[in-house]
Design a protein that fits this description.
The structure is a homodimer.
Chain A lengths: L1 E3 L11 E7 L2 H11 L4 H4 L1 H4 L11 H14 L7 E9 L8 E12 L4 E10 L3 E11 L6 E3 L5
Antiparallel strand pairs in A: 1-7, 2-4, 3-6, 4-5, 5-6
Chain lengths: 151, 151
């Protein structure tokens, strides 16, 4: 599948994009390994069952990783430079949940050629699980990328 | 190595902690795989050399993963619930850089038992590369965790 970036000039206020991805057990393990975040809330069933969540939840920052992918593959797309993120984690996400990340362009800063997007993250089971904003610099030109599917 | 959490009651305003970790080629590939963020800025040397960065840079959200680990293993430590993150990516981080994440407690919210921390992220080469804030709920009790070193 090919993805194509939208350069700054072509981005419209109100433009929207969606990125959807299921979170697997392997994703949570890989995230723990690459970050060093071995919080038992995410990895240890027995411990997690003693908390108000009554079971393991997904790392909040893993939603930040999905957001990064949404920006880099959907809007503005490949070549985007990530400048600022703000995420509020509202409800737990479970392993196996399919996470939908929705973006909407809410501001274009002509002086610096930055774009601000509103971010809503949801799952079927939990409704809205996180929300926030992202500030990015879109690529100056249209970039086309071959998107490799998850192996 | 054992890590121990600091419950809400024992956390002091001004308390500080540091988390340090080198970012490897494998981390960047693993992050791309688990997130789906295949931005060529992070993965494609030839493309990245045509940008103002003159070479590949690390995903900004990977610094968010380090921040998550700093909160979960250092301060407040295991059992911490992540509520909100804000990160501004200021300078590029390169593969091979050792990233230092520094935390400082700046607010305790007695009503909700939340703690706010200031975040400064730096590398030896780049100085301050990111900064921001995190809001967390520390565990109600002291939790001890066996920290598994990176394999």
């Amino acid at each position: 599948m090919k993805v194509v970036s939208t350069p700054y000039e072509d981005i419209q206020i109100g433009a929207r994009a969606t990125y959807q991805r299921q979170i697997t057990e392997g994703d949570v393990r890989a995230f723990a390994t690459l970050s060093g975040d071995t919080n038992p809330l995410h990895l240890d069933d027995r411990f997690a069952r003693t908390t108000p969540f009554d079971g393991r939840i997904v790392h909040g920052a893993l939603l930040g990783a999905h957001l990064s992918a949404a920006l880099a593959t959907q809007l503005p797309g490949p070549g985007t430079v990530y400048l600022e993120e703000r995420l509020r984690f509202r409800r737990p996400v479970r392993i196996g949940d399919t996470v939908t990340t929705e973006l909407e362009v809410i501001e274009k800063r002509e002086d610096k050629r930055f774009v601000r997007l509103k971010v809503e993250i949801s799952t079927e089971a939990g409704g809205q699980v996180a929300s926030g904003e992202a500030l990015v610099m879109p690529p100056p030109e249209r970039i086309e990328l071959d998107l490799v599917d998850r192996a």
